């Protein structure tokens, strides 16, 4: 009997722990006495959800939704309980935790406005920040815009940064949903790379956000999308970010050559054939590639090689590209050279050096391809032209040779027969 009891308790414990953590949130961010809102409880599995008592709040109805997704062979399940709740009094009200198995939601506190004195305030917020606040000319800085909406919004737009003669590049745009203080938010984050060109104070003007917020009325659900709000009222929303100020300090005095403030710089070369073989009259290809993190491709200098009397150099048009990893831009310049030796002997290919400013150490640095000594071989000799052997035999000559061969064979057999008769 004790064994059965222990097995039963073990089964109960396993069942309770099979539930994933619960989460819950309310739809919207403005709550008014006498106006219903929705509360959503979400788990990975269905089960016996325990509903707490809620003072000042009345559950008008509830429904459930289940969804199963298969992505790359992985199965995920979501089960939701959706409650329509009516506040019947004003003030700060609390929604106690819901429980499923041994998991429970967090408590949610709501401020319920009095219906008579309520004025609509939409839960939409926009913020901006820059990093770093102090940069050199042409150094990358990042402007981040964060937009949070606690209601559904249509026809949204955001003006991009307007900075004449200053390069601006959108790094990425990320959209996600978050739950904060029991409220579900749609959050959009945009990141721009900006490259100031001159020292001094740079002011990034305010960005303007516009949209049409959908105002849910009694009996309507924001959780299920816009299809149920074709007749709902909307409210025009216009918000602006605060302007941002950045200090652009002068180029350091000990900086040399082309001014290139970067996080990292790499200078590479590739030969074809590899290793290269230099011979008079034969072409050898050399590709030189410069890659810099924190700079646009257009900011990188031209790459060149010097011509000598023993070596002619021809260059193709450079390939210039810019990519990003959502945090930094990476500029790249690739230049191909054709090297054609004109005189045998040894010679030196000068080093290729690019001066740049290392932002991580705040020190000057040099990206370098070292000097190379090459040996140019003489031009290859052309193959010797041999006179072909004439093997043509005329018909009359061939017939003459055949007749002589037959006569010679006849005399040989006659001699052999005479010798045998003498024996």
Give a structural overview.
This protein has 423 residues and is mainly β. Helices cover 10% and strands 48% of the residues. It is built from 2 helices and 30 strands. The chain has helices at residues 2-17, 395-422, and strands at residues 23-26, 31-32, 37-43, 57-71, 74-87, 91-95, 99-100, 103-104, 108-113, 124-131, 134-135, 141-149, 153-158, 168-180, 183-194, 200-204, 208-215, 233-240, 244-248, 261-262, 264-272, 278-279, 284-293, 311-315, 319-324, 329-341, 345-349, 352-358, 363-369, 372-377. The strands form 9 sheets. Strands 21, 23, 24, 25 and 26 form a 5-stranded antiparallel beta sheet that branches. The protein is elongated.
Short description:
The protein has 423 residues and is mainly β. Helices cover 10% and strands 48% of the residues.
Features:
single chain, 30 strands, mainly beta, 423 residues, disordered N terminus, 4-stranded antiparallel beta sheet
Q: How is the main sheet built?
A: 5 strands, antiparallel
Percentage of residues in strands: over 45%
Number of beta-strand segments: 30
Structural class: mainly beta
Mean pLDDT: 83
What's the tally of helices? Answer: 2
Low-pLDDT windows of residues: 1-19, 218-228, 393-404, 415-423
Write the layout of secondary structure elements.
Elements: H1 2-17, E1 23-26, E2 31-32, E3 37-43, E4 57-71, E5 74-87, E6 91-95, E7 99-100, E8 103-104, E9 108-113, E10 124-131, E11 134-135, E12 141-149, E13 153-158, E14 168-180, E15 183-194, E16 200-204, E17 208-215, E18 233-240, E19 244-248, E20 261-262, E21 264-272, E22 278-279, E23 284-293, E24 311-315, E25 319-324, E26 329-341, E27 345-349, E28 352-358, E29 363-369, E30 372-377, H2 395-422
Parallel strand pairs: 2-9, 11-19, 20-28, 22-30
Antiparallel strand pairs: 1-3, 3-5, 4-5, 6-9, 7-8, 10-12, 12-15, 13-17, 14-15, 16-19, 17-18, 21-23, 23-26, 24-26, 25-26, 27-30, 28-29
